[in-house]
Amino acid sequence: FRRARTYLAKIAIVLQDAPGQMLMFRQLMTKIVLLTSEDQKCVKNNIRVCLSTNKCFVKVPVIAESNHSKRNYWKLDCGQITAKMVRRHFRGLLQLFPELAPKVGTKGASSKPPDQHPARQSPDPAACKAAQVRCQVKFSGPFSIESLLRRDSPSGASPRPGVQIIRAEQQQ
InterPro entries under this entry (predicted)? Predict the structure, then answer.
């Protein structure tokens, strides 16, 4: 459990060891709080967010006919765990989740080895010039920095004359 650094991994480990690989939220909370030294309120919030945002955690109603029950079991669906999730959350834990091992090598990579990719070419100089012109035109509106800086303003006078008087009195 110490190797699990993310809440997703911690929850997955606890669910993996549970009877039927399912637990209610309260049971899950109790087990994780016992294994961590963090604040219980913080842990509860993190678990709730993790369960609701990751598709790999599935709600299973306690009563099969009731879809809107507040009492649900949570179960880990390994089919919803992507290769990216395996790399981020289950690194070093694959001995506990052997069904995730095939996903480690799949990265969505191309068929070519990394050293056979063609070298990148520099962009067309005409395209760069067009992009520069667009940027110059883009910032020429009435509220652009350039137009605000170009406005005539009295160079020596302060926008609030009282400020200069107070400063002069403080110096004496």
Answer: Activin_resp_transcr_regulator (IPR052327), Fork_head_dom (IPR001766), WH-like_DNA-bd_sf (IPR036388), WH_DNA-bd_sf (IPR036390)
Angle at 8 between CA 5 and CA 9, to 5 degrees: 55
Domains of the chain, earliest start first: 7-103 (1.10.10.10)
Give the CA angle between residues 56, 57, 63 to the nearest 5°: 140
Answering whether pTM is above 0.85, one says no
Q: 9-59: per-residue pLDDT in tens?
A: 899 989 988 999 999 999 999 998 888 888 889 889 999 999 999 999 999
Structure tokens at 164: 């200069």
Instruction: Report residue 82 CA to chain centroid gap.
Output: 16
What is the 3-state secondary structure of 27-45? HHHHHHHHHCCCCHHHHHH
Number of neighbours of residue 131 by Cβ within 10 angstroms: 11
